[in-house]
Specification:
This protein has a single domain, classed as HUPs (Rossmann fold, 3-Layer(aba) Sandwich), CATH 3.40.50.620. It is of the alpha/beta class. The chain has seven helices and five strands; from the N terminus they run αβαβααβαβαβα. It is globular and about 50 Å long.
């Protein structure tokens, strides 16, 4: 279910009251591929409710450059939400999901294998934003290995090579 941030912030306490464990991850998810699906399926196995934050078009443009995103935020959110592993999807405007993490305080925070759950320096690219909040509240931070040779960058390169 795609929710606004306000709707999600009302839903999370209800989920907690029912005893559900909450898993959170985020990303651009610009060109959906097998790596994304395996990543989200693995994340879902770590808890009962999987919430996925999807970067807005403006934040993707700031992070990835003028040529991105390829697909608009509505389409990217729709595709992510269509995956059976995903319970809730939310689009966020900022460059990082810190606002979502502060409000959700997930039981488990997930990132891909190019991050380090033990990295404590926010200036380091391997640092997982919000990991300090999750850990301070008794949650855990996990990293899911990347699927080799599956990435949006590789997909875009292949498309460019074809044209």
């Amino acid at each position: 279910m795609i929710l606004s941030q306000e709707e999600l912030f009302k839903t999370v306490p209800e989920l907690r009251e029912s005893g559900k464990s909450i898993v959170f991850t985020n990303g651009v998810f610009d060109i959906l591929h097998r790596g994304h699906a395996e990543y989200l399926n693995s994340a879902k196995k770590l808890g009962e409710i999987l919430i996925v934050g999807v970067n807005s078009d403006l934040s993707v443009k700031r992070l990835k450059g003028d040529g991105r995103p390829v697909h608009c935020e509505e389409d990217r959110a729709y595709l992510i939400d269509s995956l059976k592993a995903v319970d809730y999807t939310v689009v966020f405007e900022s460059d990082t999901p810190i606002g979502l993490i502060k409000n959700i305080v997930p039981d488990i925070l997930i990132k891909g294998g190019d991050y380090d759950p033990d990295e404590t320096d926010p200036a380091n690219k391997k640092y997982i934003i919000g990991s300090d909040i999750v850990k301070m509240n008794g949650g855990r931070v996990s990293v899911i290995p990347l699927v080799p040779f599956r990435s949006t960058t590789l997909s875009l390169k292949k498309i460019q090579d074809i044209t």
